[in-house]
Amino acid sequence: MADEVLFLDLKAAYAELQPELDAAYQRVMDSGWYILGEEVEAFEAEFAAACGAKYAVGVGNGLEALHLILRAAGIGAGDGVIVPANTYIATWLAVSQAGATPVPVEPDPRTCNLDPNRVEAAITPRTRAVLAVHLYGQPAEMEALVEICARRGLLLFDDAAQAHGAFYRGKPVGNLCHATGWSFYPGKNLGAYGDAGAVSSDDPALAEKIRRLRNYGSAVKYYNEVKGVNSRLDPLQAAFLRVKLPRLPEWNARRARIAQYYLQELTAAPGLILPYVPAHLEPAWHLFVIQHPQRDALHAHLRALGIQTLIHYPVPPHLQPAYAEMGLRPGAYPLSEQIHAQALSLPIGPHLSLADVKRVIAAVRSFVRALPAG
Ligand SMILES: *Cc1c(COP(=O)(O)O)cnc(C)c1O
């Protein structure tokens, strides 16, 4: 059988940039400076510029980025934060870690992102903020969320862990609301070689608070104003990210070409739901998520043909044992549950060859053709 089609080829990504990444490694090792410092500051400035934001603060990972945003904004025990029912659990965990309560809201089933029309019904006197997510790399409907939050006196933040280089009405994700949390987990569109994350924002006070919180709550060494954490962006990771950031537009363009090809070639497959992209959005295409009622059989069929696909995600946050305290049963968030039951992510990495894209398309088509009609 032909080689496996990998879901994401991280070795090929390293090979493309190896001389520059190895030089970045050598530069940091030779510097003798291994916590925060110039390399982290340089990345923060370059990443802020890419976000169209005044500030970026490097932190340990994406979960910490979101958690520290909430803490810096003074959100904690007794507060409610509206989150998408359909998201990766990290969004919820950030709220819980801050001591607040995640308040789930169903998605728009077409975009799979938080449905602004359902947000107001979930607001209570305890609600302090909305934490939107640009799931699969497609920007959430931010204009409507900005309007609701302004009118109802709520803060608005976004989880951009899947949306590096995405645009909303021509504006880069990273400065569409009060503060944005980023992950540079290796598999993200802008991925490091270990854990890494950042916050971008135009708010100088919030950025300064996060700078302290990430470093034991200290601005001056051994003087601690607040009970902070240790969640600093590693200088080695910052140096690697500085190599990869300028390549992001080109690597995202490769993803977008694959997405266009899938959208064009898979339209006629009965039973298959393809990603829906409103015209004012330019997704980062972190994931290409299709839906099918026989998702598990499709998954097995593709695996048998040597094609790796992944399920993002098999269990929604409200049905995870981690959130058993909410007492929610299947059926509590049916739209999100349906997406979790039907979603399958096709390979879409920047190093996927056209021949492999064609293999994926042929394999998906062979599955839907083989299904009994009706
Ligand atoms: C990856 C991811 C995170 C968490 O990022 P880490 O760096 O792994 O902590 C948060 N939210 C979403 C939507 C993600 O995909």
Please write out the topology:
Elements: H1 10-31, H2 38-51, E1 55-59, H3 62-72, E2 80-84, H4 90-97, E3 101-105, E4 127-133, H5 142-152, E5 155-159, E6 167-168, E7 171-172, E8 179-183, E9 197-201, H6 204-213, E10 218-220, E11 223-224, H7 235-244, H8 248-266, E12 281-282, E13 288-291, H9 295-304, H10 334-342, E14 343-346, H11 354-370
Parallel strand pairs: 2-3, 2-4, 4-5, 5-8
Antiparallel strand pairs: 1-9, 6-7, 6-12, 8-9, 10-11, 13-14
Helix pairs in contact: 1-7, 2-7, 3-4, 3-6, 8-11
Bound molecules: pyridoxal-5'-phosphate (PLP).
CATH C-level name of the largest domain: Alpha Beta
Q: What percentage of the residues does DSSP assign to strands (E)?
A: 5-15%
Q: Into how many domains do the coordinates divide? A: 2
**CATH fold call of the largest domain:** Aspartate Aminotransferase, domain 2
Query: Which residues sit in consecutive blocks of at least 5 with pLDDT less than 50?
Result: none
Produce a short descriptive summary:
The chain has 11 helices and 14 strands.
Overview features:
globular; 374 residues; alpha/beta; Aspartate Aminotransferase, domain 1; binds pyridoxal-5'-phosphate; 38% helix; seven-stranded mixed sheet; single chain; 15% strand
